[in-house]
Recover the amino acids of this structure.
């Protein structure tokens, strides 16, 4: 067994991704639905045994909701500015050779924000040299993160419940029945991004129902249009400067949608592979723990 | 039985309000949960019989979702500008002496809006002389209506899914567990209205969770704060001019919340009794049908 080998887990609420990393390179990868909510109380030790049975009796570095008060051990949050060294220094150890990374928080007076897991990818993109030491990054998802890195440290960030809102509307809102069709970077999505310029989300959303009743939009365009409204609004609220470069850590569909929306609101998206960024970040954190 | 007596019903999706009106004055009133969704197919005739058993064999004038494609008979929509005369002229009659009022629609290019039921109250407030012939009105609710009346006709309006969004968030969102306490015009509500100035709803909503995790806000303040965010954003998006007068058709709690929010964003709210406005509007519509 290689001395620089370890197992890294991005252990979220509903999913987890397991990497066996050797010399900074992922040699094995698994993804499953065993997020922390699927693990019964006291079940984490057993899960670790099973993972080591498959990938070797290696040290582990765990990030994500596993370190929350609903996970295995509460690793807390470190405040911004937060860099790789600070994350490594604040890791907690439920067992020998098992490190759990803290989250990151930021407060501005009575307002605050938190992340847990995304910090590894965001700082990993910097550690790997894919983004400069001062950069603006976006990691879309259920709760989209928009972060500023300065001198290699997370300086500030904002979370938007963009993805969660899409799911809420589709599953539970009156306009859910109008949200048919697949979401993609199509004319309906782009119309939604354009309409988000009004910054009047609650009225634009009811407009989806009115448009259906009045026959102004085909039902199969509804989901893409609402996605455009939400993602367009997210990008407009976040892009501080015209021409702003956004380093986008996203998978295929999200990469297409956010690239288009960022472009439409006057920014410039540069894609970054989010899985590779995680491997780079967690490897750098482990290096700093030694 | 008086010759000027009739039964008016504001028959919505989940509730209905029944008025026996004589010479323009409500002499009897009932409210129950027998909205159109609670009436089985073909059940409206029987309901009408039961209502006439209680209130007398009088003519009926029905408004609201009863006239939608999910109600008793589809009364369609008349376009803006829409006045009392136009509503009366477009009424449909499922049976002799039973009139169902249409809704009102407005379109601007590919965008549109619809209302059904609110038009009676909005135009009734004008018919009764409680608002001038040119006025700006707000009727808060699940789907808040903001309407412009010009020369006694509805000229334009916007619907915001403010109330529905509050319910969605409380029942189904991750921040639902943070939305504790009662909603009222309290400091948390006012903080929400102030925060809505950022016009960044999706980030402010996630901030409710972050504030709870970081201990920045007491859990019992969550519901009021979110209500302030939503209602504040609704008022900011809608008030076109500083000092704008808004005629507010609202009940006690909504009246308090919207009055405060309208005031905080620079407008001036004037309360109008929404039940009396309905009675005035439906009486005027009936007069014009004769």
């Amino acid at each position: 067994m290689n001395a620089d080998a370890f197992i890294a887990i991005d252990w979220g609420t509903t999913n987890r991704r397991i990497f066996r990393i050797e010399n900074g390179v992922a040699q094995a990868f698994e993804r499953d639905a065993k997020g922390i909510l699927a693990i019964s109380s006291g079940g984490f030790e057993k899960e670790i045994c099973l993972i080591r049975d498959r990938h070797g009796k290696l040290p582990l570095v765990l990030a994500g909701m596993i370190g929350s008060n609903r996970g295995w051990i509460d690793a807390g949050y470190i405040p911004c500015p937060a860099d790789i060294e600070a994350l490594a220094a604040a890791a907690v150890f439920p067992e020998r050779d098992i490190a759990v990374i803290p989250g990151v928080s930021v407060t501005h007076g009575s307002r605050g924000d938190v992340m847990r897991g995304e910090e590894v990818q965001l700082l990993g993109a910097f550690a790997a040299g894919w983004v400069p030491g001062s950069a603006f990054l976006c990691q879309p998802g259920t709760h989209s993160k928009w972060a500023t890195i300065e001198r290699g440290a997370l300086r500030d960030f904002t979370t938007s419940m963009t993805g969660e809102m899409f799911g809420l509307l589709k599953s539970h809102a009156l306009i859910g029945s109008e949200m048919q069709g697949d979401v993609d970077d199509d004319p309906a999505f782009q119309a939604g991004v354009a309409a988000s310029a009004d910054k009047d989300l609650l009225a634009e959303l009811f407009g989806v129902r009115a448009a259906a009743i009045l026959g102004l939009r085909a039902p199969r365009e509804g989901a893409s249009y609402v996605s455009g409204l939400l993602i367009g609004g997210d990008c407009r609220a976040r892009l501080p400067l015209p021409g702003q470069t956004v380093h986008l850590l996203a998978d295929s569909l999200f990469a297409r949608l956010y690239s288009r929306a960022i472009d439409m609101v006057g920014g410039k998206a540069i894609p970054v592979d989010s899985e590779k960024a995680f491997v780079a970040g967690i490897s750098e954190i482990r290096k700093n723990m030694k």
In short: The first helix of chain B runs from residue 44 to 55. The first strand of chain B starts at residue 5 and ends at 11. The CA atoms of residues 182 and 203 of chain B lie 23 Å apart.
